[in-house]
Design a protein that fits this description.
The chain has 241 residues and is α+β, with helices and mostly antiparallel strands. It has 2 domains: 142 residues, Sandwich (Jelly Rolls); 76 residues, Arc Repressor Mutant, subunit A. It is built from 9 helices and 13 strands. The N terminus is likely disordered. It comes from Bradyrhizobium archetypum.
């Protein structure tokens, strides 16, 4: 999938509705050219290599990061060491918050999954811009409200759906948002390991491995080296109604 097409999507997360996660514009898109320049003027560009943390859980917040290129994973680490992936974010999104203006401690971690270019917007300067421009303030509120809806939807899925339903729902989401129709097959254009999928649905890698093998044996999917191909989307859809 090209960078241009990824820019028009929101990210990858566990959610019950495709509509919820398929329509958020970039934080900068609603702004006029003058306000867009004002926001970028306070920024500092950074390049993060794969595996480099943007911040770690517990670090003090000091601003947000606009993603220009690459992929950023946000996740929560339990005291036991178990990780739950909240979302993967692509170009056009930002990571940071809920304290956009840089107060308090981060309640989760964010790390670059691949080489990523980001623009850091310091919280104090961003707050000053929000006080000066209603359009900037509204754009920030809209973006924050969207993320709140996403994480609320994730909590509802974790609390009300079985782990099997969550895996099927995730595969349906990936096929509809990131899938490419090739004949009768749908090829998901972003590779995922069993561990990636497990962290997104709140399960274990071993359980996901067993379930994918069973689905492959039933002719529902094909999985090889991180590439997921949906062979029977209807079978998945019927099981997540």
């Amino acid at each position: 999938m090209s960078a241009a097409s990824l820019r028009n999507t929101t990210g990858i997360m566990l959610a019950g509705s495709d509509a919820l996660v398929g329509s958020l514009p970039s934080l900068l898109d609603p702004l006029c050219e003058a306000d867009r320049r004002r926001v970028l003027a306070i920024g500092r560009e950074e390049v993060l290599q794969a595996g480099k943390h943007v911040w770690r859980q517990g670090d003090l917040q000091n601003g947000i990061y606009l993603i220009e290129e690459g992929r950023i994973r946000s996740y929560y680490a339990a005291p036991s060491g178990r990780e739950v992936t909240l979302a993967y974010w692509f170009a056009g999104n930002f990571v940071g918050g809920p304290d956009l203006f840089g107060t308090g401690a981060h309640v989760w971690s964010s790390v670059a999954v691949e080489r990523s270019q980001v623009t850091f917007l310091p919280g104090a300067a961003l707050r000053a811009l929000a006080l000066q421009s209603a359009s900037i303030a509204v754009a920030l509120l809209d973006a924050l409200a969207f993320k709140a809806r996403c994480y609320s939807a994730m909590a509802q899925m974790l609390g009300t759906r079985s782990v099997t339903e969550r895996l099927h729902r995730l595969l349906v989401f990936l096929s509809k948002i990131y899938g490419s129709q090739q004949g009768r097959e749908i090829v998901i254009g972003i590779p995922f390991t069993h561990g990636d999928l497990a962290n997104l649905i709140g399960s274990t890698r071993q359980w996901v491995t067993v379930q994918l093998s069973r689905m492959q044996a039933r002719g529902v999917i094909r999985y090889h080296r991180g590439l997921i191909v949906i062979l029977n989307l209807r079978a998945l859809d019927l099981e997540v109604v």
